[in-house]
Each structure stands twice: as structure tokens, then as C-alpha cells.
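Hello again,

I reread your note about wanting to compare the complex against the isolated chains. To keep things tidy I'm splitting this into two emails, and this first one only covers the full assembly. Below are the input lines as submitted, including protein chains and any nucleic acid or small-molecule components. They are followed by the predicted structure of everything together. The single-chain runs will come separately.
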Amino acid sequence: MANAAEHDVELRGVTKRFGSFVAVRDMSLIVEKGQFVCLLGPSGCGKTTTLRLVAGLEQADGGEIRIAGARVDDTPPWRRDVAMMFQDFALFPHMTVARQVGFGLEMLRRPKEEIRRRVAETLAAFEIGDLADRKPDTLSGGQKQRVALARALITRPRVLLLDEPIGSLDFSLREAVMLELKDVQRRAGISFVWVTHDQNEAFSLGDQVVVMNHARIEQTGTPEEIFERPRTRFVATFIQGHNVLDGTAASAEDGHVTVVTAVGRFVVPVRNGAAPASGAPVSFSIRAELLEDDPGLDHPNRLAATCHAIEYLGSVRRWDLRLADGRSVKLERSGRTRCRLAEGEAVLIGWRVEDGVLHIPAADAA
Amino acid sequence: MIDWRARERLVTWVLGAVTVGFLAYQWLPILTMALLSFTGPDGGTTFPMRGVSLFWYRELLRVQSIDDFKPPLGRSLVLALLCSATTAVLAVAAAQAMRARFRGNGIFFYLVLLGVMAPGLLVGFGMGLITRIVGVTPAWYTTTFAVHIVWTLPFGFLTMLAAFNRFDRRLEEAALTLRANPWTAFRRITLPLVLPGVIGAALFGFTLSFDEFARSFFTTGSEQTLPLVIYAQFDRQLQPTLYALGTTTTVVSLLAVGAALALVRLVRRRAVTGP
Amino acid sequence: MSTLRERSPRAYALALPAALWMIGALVLPTVFIGWVSLWTTRTFSVGNPLGFANYAKFFQRPAYVKVLTDTVEQTVLLMVITAILGYAIAYFLAVKVERPTVQLAFFLVLVIPFWTSALIRTIAWIPFLGVTGVINKVLIALRVVDQPVEAFLFSRTGITLAQVSFYTLLAAGPVVYTLRNIPPSLREAAYTLRAAPLAVFRRIVLPLTLPGIVIGQILVFLNVMADFATAQAIGGHKLAYLGNLVILLYDTGQLPFASVIAVLLMAAMLAGVAVLLKVVDIRRLGIS
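Full-complex prediction:
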């Protein structure tokens, strides 16, 4: 195991309850030095609570939290080596931009001359030097964001925690701001922990993505790992682009298991641990882009469906196919590859055995 | 060094103790007065109570030559109702006018709010001066009424402004696009929805007038309102009748507030389920 | 667009009754007072010559000037007490109490007395303060004193005690409002910027609640300066403030003199409004 002092943040078995509601359950997570980690999940999954636990704004009911290797469970937020960006930016309305940005340094009791110098440097670095004497209510969303960022980073924290930081920006601005923030992170070399419910944000920004649901981690991995090999059923349904089928495990042999579903029998490779016992409920997924509309006879996985509708999404086309039991399966094509299905047509689709992904039950995840 | 969590908790406890202490400090005199009002016929105006009875309440109802409280009570009630209705109407009109942002509405706003800032003593005194010099006889239903409204209107005004603020004007616009004329739209759509605010304004008009004495002081003439009669008692030997009276008026005030709140709940529910 | 077009004549018509009422029943009497205060003769006529003789007479009488200074002293004392007490209560209610139902319950219990007559509440203090009153009985029972303390009733202490119970909420109310307008994320952001709770209070919360403090203090200021009932009921005839003086002079027919005092009170009122307009814009507090 790597030297513990190398980790910027470490959570071990952390639990947090609000009354009888468990917000975070037995969670363990490592943020490596200089890593960009995204906590991704639906509302209420515990991602924001996790962030606040690291910041010290909430107290854990169990487990350990470490920052730069040292335990911080008893350290209040103002003595932790972290900084935080809030969704509403939380700029102080009664202070000018210059005053605000220098606030953290004032709290650290740095000499006035040093504060003045560093504030000027930071404002210049974020290209907001001309806003120095303005008050927050006169700034645009994008400008507020830069001020919040400057304010947070000037204290050179170990970790920057971001709580859905671009959620309140105009759509057109988000892309640009995302890239800027990624750039800042790389240049500053500090780790970012970014909370979001938006998959696109998480995938384009994160070195590591942590998918959470119901107070637990469902899967941790790179964006490729999450997308190409979703571990649990939840991850497959939450991340766009997967078709999920449920059934019962039948025979297992040769590293593959046969799954019996209401619409047919399919062979799925077993990649994580032991094969499920015969009769156990099981689910697997197949990505929409990997479905073939003209399966050869060597595809043991075939499915009868009718084309219900075709969605044109610009660079991607999506076919909404209905199965015998009424359920929906999506098939995607992008670029020049075509699928010749027309609305109303009946079709046989299939996929290669190795493209199927078996899901382990949530209790064994992470 | 004390643990920071313990320190935060200590602060909470100290502030809480101060708040609860103040609560007791505020309520104890009222509760004591209410308790003492039930003292027996031989009881004085302080403890110990000699017996428990409704004697002093019955004393209130007795017709007396010098200190009959019933006519002033009647006058105060009528005046309060008058103020209630007038405040509601004027406040709705004024707040509705504010929505149109007419020129000079800033000055108008401060003009109305001036009523809160001007101490009752001054306003009453000024009105008393005018009546003396112009030769008009002051009376509770003319001069006192006028001066009471100066005090109650700003409260009603602010209440209505807040109510209109919460009101979604698109509902009115929808009514107008459905061929309703402005008055009908106001009557059928706006008014029912801001009714809680109107009730609030009416409530302010009632309670503020009912309890008001500084403004009544110079303006009522010979027929006094209840608070003035009470005030006159300060110079005399205090009797528990005063406590009984005080408890009664307090109960009346609280009943008015309760009635208003119940009415608001009723109106809100009807607004949702429909007539 | 609403049921009223912007700047339509109908708006003026709707605003007129209230405007006329305020002018007739508030502005006019005020002007009158100013005019009467300038009368130089004691006769009651409209054609009186005007001058500042009455003001000079007022400031030449040490007894009257003392009443003025007493009133100002009492007002400042109340302002200080209610500011601290009021802020503590407001902070507890708005920040420290988490559950909204508990907050509402506290708030109601604190505010309900305001729906009752101030006069009645003043009367209610009498059985508390007297020689045989509750406070003395408790003090004797707890053996803090042997003899009943006379200093409560008919004294400045008693008046102060009663006034604190009346006016603290005026100081606390606006502070509660401004405190609630501070989003929790502001305080949390300050924590993550290395500010300990005391620093957060001093640098973030206090400055942002300053408008609330000022409004509350002005309300207290206006009320205590003009208060006469408390002094009368609890102070008996031993103490007098400006309000009592006005009444005394009015009753004895010295109208111009009474007007002088009223004008001084009004001057204080206008000064308060001026301070208010400088420090905070009421209309931006979310009413318009």
C-alpha cells in the first residue's frame, strides 16, 4: 500500500446519520495527491454529505477521516487544510472582491503587505484584476465563479472541495468553465473533489469517478472503467447508454454463466469473482452502441424486438426497440455507421458474448 | 483549551438561557396580573391572595357612577372595528397603487411609513392643538379615529405589500387575456388570493386601535376610550378591578388574533379547494 | 402588466385617500406644533407674532433641561440594554435553533404580548415592583435581602426594568429578519476560509446584520424618548421625562411651551429617520 502521507484525503469506514436517516454508510475512499475525483450520483445519495464531512462542516458518527495522512475527526473546519466552493458561490455581499479574496489570508494572520501582494497576483492569475473594487452583486455568474475560486485557492489548500460548482451557470458557459477548472487543477497540482449529478461533468473532468447511491459507493474507477464495465446494476442504469436485463442464473461453466430472462436465454462472461449460484437472481447489461442489428448465427445472444421510434440526437441516433414483454431496449449508432431499421419493423438484434457485463449484487460492491 | 464543539454548545446554552429568561421576564407580570385578578373580595393588589373568586370581574360589570367601565369598553370596541375596516380598505388601495409604480411612489411609501415613526404623543398632541385652535370639539369617532388610522395604516400597508409581493401577477394577466376587465380580475382573482393579507391588515387595525392610548390621549374629548379610563386609574388607589379589566382586554386581543388566524386558514383552504 | 397599468391615473386615485389622510392627520398636526412653538404671546390666536423666545426660555430653565437630559440618558441606557439583549435573543432564535417548529413556537411566545395593550403590561409590573411585590418577596425568601427593597417602585430602576421588557423585542425583531437572510453557506464558506466562529461573527454576521440593529435601535429610540406612561405608572410623580412634561404643560394650558418640547421630540425623530436613510434602504429589504 502506498505511503499514507501521499494520500490527500482518506476516509475509512465513515458513517453519518441525520436522526434515523443514514446519509453515508461505512464509506472508504482515497484521494491521491493531485488527483481529480468526481463524486457522482443522484440526489440524496450522500455525495454532498461526504464532501461536507471532509470539509468538517459535518461530524462523522463513525470511522476515520484523514487529510494529508493526519486524522482530522476532531479538527474544526477552520483548521483543516481544505477549501470549498459552493453552488451559490457564497460570496460575502458586504466585501469588495479584493477584500474577499484576501479574507482567508487575513484569517491566517499573514502580514498586510503579503496579503496585498498575493491578492494582486491571484486576481491577475484569474484575470479578474479589474474587478478588485467591485461588490459581488454587480458581478456576472462567470465572474462570481472566478472570485470564489480565487478566494478558495489563495490559501494554497491541500484539497479543493467543490459542491456542484457549475450547476447555476448558463449552459453555454458550463463547458468553458469546466475546461478552465480542469486546467487550474492541473497547474495548481492540488487535488479536487467535485460533487455532481451530471455524468458528462464527471466523465470529462475526473481522473477517478466515484458512483454513489443510497449512502454507499457503487463503483470507483476511471471514466472508461465505469462506462465499459459497470459493476452493479445501479451503475448500469444510472450511466446513460446501457441496457439492463434481469433474470436468474442457470448453469455456469467455462467462465460464463447462462442467464434465463423473460425474453430469452443469454450467455454472459463472469469477470469478477465466483460465478453466481444456480437459481440466484442476477442482472447484466449490454451497451446500446454494441447491439448489432444483423446478428450472425454464431451470436448465441439474440433478441427479437420491434422498432418503436427513432430519436435523432445530432451526432448520435438512437433506436427505441420494444421487446416481447413490452420493455424497451436502446440501440445507438454514431458517425457514418448506419442501422437500417425503420419504424414498425420487426428485427432480430444480438451482441457478442464478451460485450455483456454481469452485475454483482450491491452488497458486494466497492 | 476547551474543545471547540463544547464551546459552541456552551454558547447555545447561554443564549438559550438568556432567551428563556427573557421570556419569563416578559410573561410573568402578565400572568401575575391575571392570577391576582381572581383574588377574593378582601384581596389587595399584591400577594398574598385572600381567596379565589370572580368578585372583581363582577365588579367590572356593575354599573357605577364614577368608574363605569362598560361605556368606554363599548367605545373602544366600536372604534377598533371602525379602524379595522378602514385600515383594510386603505391599505389594499395604497398597496395596489404601489404596484403600478407611479411617479412619486417613493415619497408616498415614506409618507405612509412616517405613521410608524411618529410617536403617539406627538401626533395626539398636534391633533389636540388643532382642535383647540380651530374650535372643533374632539371626539373618539372623529379626531381619535383619524389619529388611530395614522398609526394602523402603515402596518396594514406593509402587510398588503408583502401579500402582493407573494402574489403571482401572471394569474391576473391570465384573467385579463380571458376577457375579464381589470376590476373583475381584481375582484375574482387577486383579492381572494391576497385575502390573508387583508385579514392581517384588518387585524392590525383592530388590535392596534383597541390597545392604543397615547394617540387617544388628547383627542377623545369627554367620552373616553377604555385605555384612557385605565390610565386615569394610575392616580387613584389601585384595585383588583383593574387587573380584571386588564386580563379581560388581553383576552379580547388574543381572541382577535386567534380569530384572524383561523379565518386565514379557512380562506387558504377555500382558495385551494374552491367555493 | 397587472390589473393596473403602470403609472395610470387610477393608481394616483387609489393612493390619494391614504396620502390625504396621512397629510391631514399627521403632517398637518406636526406643522401646527412647530407653528405654535414659535408663538411669542400666551394668547390663543392665529395672528400671533412668531419668534424663538419660547425655546430660549426652555433652555434657560435648569429643571426643564434636566428633564431633557434625563430623557436622553434613559433612552441611551435602554438602547444599549436592548441592543445586547435583543441581539442575543435574535441570534439564538435565528441561528441556534434548528427546527422550524421550535423556532416558530419561541417566536410566537415572544411576540404574543405585543398583541396586548402596552398599558396593561405596564400595570402588570406594579405588583412586581412594590414593597410587597413579587420581586421583593422572592428576594426575601431567597434571603438575598432582609428588608424589602424600596428602590424598585417609584424609581428609575423600576422604570428601566419595565421598559426593557417592553422594548427589547423591538430591537430583536429586525435583527432576526436580517439574520435569517444570511444563507448558511456564507458562514460555512467563512469556516473553510480559516475563520473561527468568533471571527465569522465579527467579520461576516455582524456587518450583515447591521441594518437590522440600526432599525431596531431607532424603533427603541423613538419609543423610549416619547414614553410617558411607564414613568407615570411606575415612577409615580417623582420622575418625569419629556413626554410627561408635554402632558403637564398641556394640562396647565401652556401650549407654546408644550409645543417646544414636542418640536424637540420631533427633531429627534427626524434625526433618527436621517440616520436610517443613510445606513440602509428599507425598500431593498425585500418589501418592494
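For quick reference: Chain A has two domains: 4-228, 233-364.

B.
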